Structures are given as C-alpha cells and as structure tokens.
C-alpha cells in the first residue's frame, strides 16, 4: 500500500465531507467536539507531525507552537490548509530522510513512521465525521485492515504506560476479517502471556473472538460503533472484549 498517496486521499475525502456539512454539527464519537473542531484537530495534527519531523525533534512539540496551526475562516482556504498540512508531512520526511529518528509518543522512531500514523488518524476521524452527519463510511478492506493493525500496535504499546492492562494475564482476543483476499493480514491475535501484552497476525481461538468485515472491526476496536451495531459475530467471553475497550481509548 502506498501510505503517502493514501494519506493525501483520505485527508481530502475527510475535508470534503466536513465542508459539505454544518461546521457546528456535534460529533458524538468525540464528545464535546463539533465538525469544526474535528477538522482543526486533524489539520493541526498533520502540521504538528510535520514540524516534529522537520525539526528532528527528540521531545514533544506543544500544539500551541505549531506553525500556521489554525485554519483560515474562508471554507476554500481552509480545505487548502488541510490538504497542504498532509503534504507537509511527506515533504518533511523527504527533507530529513525516512529513517531519521524523531520523537513520537511511543518513543523515538523513524520519521517515516508518522506517514502511516497520520493516515490512520484521518481514516478514523473520517468515520467520526461520517457518523456525525449520517453519511456512508466506505473503506477498502486492505486499508481498514492496516488501520486495525496500526491501532493494535499503539494500544499494546501504550498499555505498558498505563496502570490497567487491557487484557488480564492468560487472556487473549482474536479478530477475524471476513473480506476476500486479506489472508493473514486480516487476522489478529492479542494475548497477555509470560512475555507481556503483544499481538500477531496469527490464527487463534481467543478468550473472545470477533468476526466480520475489516471496516466494521475497525469501527468496533476504535469504539466508534459497538460490535452489535455493526453486526459483528462475537464468540466467547464478552467481558474480555468490554475490558479491552474500556482500557484502550482512541
């Protein structure tokens, strides 16, 4: 998958969706936010990441210090601002080199790491916007599956910084995408074993298992829709799934 091209594409679709609706529309999946605030969050987030990369930062950047971090009032100019921010992420990576290590919230990583991260920030927040206005949310299965993988990487890594483990010791969770052609990339097993919490693309039974299209698994695992709402099949101990959701906020 060309993460660079898809970042630009998903950002554009996100912006056009918001531009076509009332900016003061509440976003239920992001409590207390409106579409206008969601738009600013994604747009400023791209510029924030681009600045971290271009400055080769080894420490966090205060969002208030992001260059040109506020969208213009004019709707067309605001869309241009949003799309330029995504392009800036790519330009910054090109300037410093994909492998140059910079700060991330998961520790130092190659600057190119931010491309995929910002892509899936747009992917999930586009779902927020679509749900807020009652629009369809379509996502290619390959992209949705990668978003699930990326989120599991973050959730398992962040769990080590939290007091409450999302999965108890000896417990596991399995997700299975039913889309054609995904192969191993459409299966995920998260387990808490003697080595700690981790995940893989392995097939497994799991203390709890969820089965359905990758797009719906993404909406469920990021708490945008419930498993029941999107019609996922759930097998096993549902308390394990509930605990995972409670302890892995997006």
TrEMBL record:
* Pfam families xref list: MDMPI_C, MDMPI_N
A single GO molecular function term of this UniProt record: isomerase activity
Q: Which domain of life is it from?
A: Bacteria
For this protein, the record's InterPro entries field holds: Maleyloyr_isom (IPR017517), MDMPI_C-term_domain (IPR010872), MDMPI_metal-binding (IPR024344)
Keywords in alphabetical order = Isomerase
Give every MDMPI C-terminal domain span.
142-242
Q: Where is the Mycothiol-dependent maleylpyruvate isomerase metal-binding domain?
A: 10-130
Task: Return the NCBIfam families for the record.
Answer: maleylpyruvate isomerase family mycothiol-dependent enzyme
Q: What is this protein called?
A: Maleylpyruvate isomerase family mycothiol-dependent enzyme
What organism, scientifically named, is this protein from?
Answer: [Mycobacterium] fortunisiensis
Recall the taxonomic lineage recorded for the source organism. Answer: Bacteria, Bacillati, Actinomycetota, Actinomycetes, Mycobacteriales
């Amino acid at each position: 998958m060309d993460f660079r091209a898809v970042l630009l594409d998903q950002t554009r679709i996100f912006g056009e969706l918001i531009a076509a609706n009332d900016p003061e529309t509440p976003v239920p999946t992001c409590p207390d936010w409106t579409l206008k605030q969601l738009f600013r969050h994604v747009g400023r987030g791209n510029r924030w990441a681009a600045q971290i990369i271009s400055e080769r930062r080894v420490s966090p950047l205060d969002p208030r210090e992001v260059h040109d971090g506020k969208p213009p009032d004019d709707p067309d100019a605001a869309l241009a601002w949003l799309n330029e921010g995504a392009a800036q992420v790519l330009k910054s990576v090109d300037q410093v080199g994909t492998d140059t290590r910079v700060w991330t919230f998961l520790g130092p990583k190659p600057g190119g790491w931010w491309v995929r991260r910002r892509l899936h920030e747009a992917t999930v927040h586009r779902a927020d916007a679509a749900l807020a206005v009652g629009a369809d949310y379509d996502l290619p299965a390959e992209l949705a599956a990668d978003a699930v993988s990326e989120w599991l990487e973050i959730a398992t890594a962040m769990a080590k910084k939290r007091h409450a483990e999302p999965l108890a010791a000896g417990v596991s969770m399995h997700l299975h995408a039913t889309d054609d052609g995904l192969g191993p990339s459409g299966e995920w097993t998260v387990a808490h074993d003697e080595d700690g919490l981790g995940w893989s693309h392995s097939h497994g039974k799991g203390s709890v298992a969820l089965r359905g299209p990758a797009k719906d698994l993404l909406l469920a695992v990021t708490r945008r829709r419930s498993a029941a709402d999107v019609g996922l099949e759930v097998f096993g101990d549902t308390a394990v799934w509930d605990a995972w959701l409670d302890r892995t906020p997006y």
